[in-house]
Design brief:
69 residues; mainly alpha; 2 helices; 0% strand
Length: 69
């Protein structure tokens, strides 16, 4: 799959990117910049397309051992 291929993204992710891109265009960004910002935002929110190999790191609460004396 070549870079920039959006076929692996879900319909929801594509829709979100479209809305973000439209908002960026309304703010005066160029079409190219608006698209780049939109997909970067979707990737940051969802961790990329399905099957992209990226997994979101989840912080786990570390258990502190406290002993009362």
């Amino acid at each position: 799959m070549p870079r920039g291929d959006k076929s692996s993204y879900s319909e929801k992710q594509k829709r979100q990117a479209g809305h973000i891109e439209e908002s960026e265009r309304e703010q005066g960004r160029s079409e190219e910049a608006a698209e780049r910002i939109a997909w970067a935002t979707v990737n940051k929110q969802d961790g990329g397309a399905k099957g992209s190999g990226r997994k979101t790191a989840r912080k786990t609460a570390s258990k502190k051992s406290t002993s009362k004396k």
